[in-house]
Amino acid sequence: MIRNFNFPTAPAVRILAGGFLLLFLNQCSHPPEVSTAKAEMRDIEVVISTNGIIEPIGSSGIYASVDGFIETIHASEGSRVTRGQSIIQLDTSQAQTALASARASLLQARREARIVLTGPSREEMDALNASIEENTLQLQQIAKDVSTEELLYQKGAVSKEAVERLKEQQELLHVQANALKKKKENLLTRYSEEEKGWERDRLDVLADQVELLQRQVRDASITAPESGLLFSLSVKAGSFVTRGQLLGQIYQPGHIRLRAYVDEPDLGRIKKEQQVVIEWDGMPQKKWNGTVEKPADEVVSLNNRSIGYILCTIDGEPEELIPNVNVRVDIVTDRKDNALVIPKNAVFSHDGRPSVLVMEGQNSTIKPVETGLIAYEDIEILQGLEAGDAVVLNPFNNGTDN
Q1: Do 262 and 331 contact (CB within 8 A), yes or no?
Q2: In this structure, is the dihedral angle defined by the CA atoms of residues 16, 21, 27 and 29, taken in order, positive or negative?
Q3: Which residues have C-beta within 8 Å of that of residue 390, sequence separation ≥ 6?
Q4: 18, 396 in Cβ contact below 8 A?
Q5: Torsions phi, psi of 172, nearest 5?
Q6: 253: helix, coil or strand?
Q7: Which H/E stretch holds residue 108?
Q8: Which class is 60-90+221-250 in CATH?
Q9: With contact defined as beta carbons under 8 Å apart, do 323 and 230 qualify?
């Protein structure tokens, strides 16, 4: 993490030390060697150095659609898969057994419910209708016989007892006709609408069970939702998974972004479109560039750090950077080209102002300066120096022992 360089008011002892050092450097016949650097015109960048992780953009999850044990896994982590390809096969032995039993129960229930829902069988109705038709013919015939016998009785050709016997037979046929009619009505209205509703509900429940088990058997083959690279697979053969559990993830190589972890004191310096430089230990000779896409929304705790998540785009969609890789990150928060720059350790506070010790031949002079951008090792000088001026590095630690 880069922090701003501050110049507090120097205590009296530092001012006295500076005076003694200046006197010593100017009056000593053999002044000690001191480390110096020249002010030069070059670019300066203010950088926040931190770490981050590579994330996939628009990854697709592979989820378990049913509960079950994993029987086989057909693809390995890091392999390319195509949409619809079988990735994981769950054990279906129990579901297959349950499905066969459910189908048998549904078939038996349909047979039992047929009489309730559709009425008596055709054979039964045909036999009953034949009996009714025969009875009707018999009634018609005996009605004619009774009429004939009554005429003969009136002429004295037959006895009254003969006529009475025919009428008794006719009455029995009427009783039989009523019984057959009642039987037909009973057959047609044997079950109430409520009883029919119960049978329909029973069939629906059994049909739902069959459909559920069929879906379990069908969904036991878990396929890739899209084509891409299988970059995460969190299960193995023999594991038990539950419906909705995330089993793996697929992404398109190169469709990645950076999630940088920036410490809380530096979050105020992060803005959109700032340049980002990424380094990875896996390819130490290469760097990747990007830009800040979204500054942090909040501060969170991460490994005893208070940080904000900074989302960054990566130029060129590099396929060599893969998800979950940890990287080093430099975020350029400010930059100036062709600035007058000196090492930061040449600046000290004198009389409450930032100053430097300038070498002029064998002599040195304290000069106040106005500073600009402050980088990790360098500092921009706005006023007080010119290009080529030699300044003393660590002026209070050079030569004071001689």
Answers
A1: yes
A2: positive
A3: 36, 37, 38, 39, 358, 359
A4: yes
A5: -65, -40
A6: coil
A7: helix 93-118
A8: mainly beta
A9: no
Under DSSP, the state recorded for 226 is: S
C-alpha to C-alpha distance for 218 and 66, rounded to whole angstroms: 10
Type of residue found at 12: A
Q: Which H/E stretch holds residue 216?
A: helix 193-219
Report the SS3 class of residue 104.
Answer: helix
C-alpha dist (Å) from residue 120 to 114, 202, 210: 9, 20, 28
Name the residue among 388, 400, 293 with its Cα closest to residue 55: 293
Integer Cα distance of 42 and 210 in angstroms? 78
Q: What is the CATH number of domain 1-58+252-402?
A: 2.40.30.170
Closest CA to 186 of 128, 137, 130: 128
Q: Which residues in 249-266 are b (16+ Cβ under 10 Å) and which e?
A: bbbbbbbbbbebbbbeeb
* Mean pLDDT of all residues in 42-61: 93
Mean pLDDT value across residues 355-380: 92
Tokens (6 digits) for 203: 């069939």
Q: How many CB atoms lie within 10 A of CB 108?
A: 11
In a 3-state reduction of DSSP, which class is residue 238?
coil
Contacts of 85 (CB under 8 A, 6+ apart): 74, 75, 223, 224
Per-residue tokens: 46 = 């203010």
Q: Residue 312's beta-bridge partner residues?
A: 258, 292
Q: Which two tokens stand for residue 329?
A: 């990150």
Lookup: tokens for 290: 């990007």
Whether the predicted model's global pTM rises above the 0.90 cut:
no
What's the rounded Cα separation, in Å, for the pair 125 and 333?
Answer: 94
Percent of the chain at pLDDT exceeding 70:
88
- The two three-digit tokens of residue 137, written as one number: 């013919």
Q: Which two tokens stand for residue 260?
A: 């940088």
Query: How many residues comprise the chain?
Result: 402
pLDDT for residue 93: 82
Is the Cβ–Cβ distance between 30 and 188 less than 8 Å?
no
Asked if pLDDT for residue 268 goes beyond 70, the answer is yes
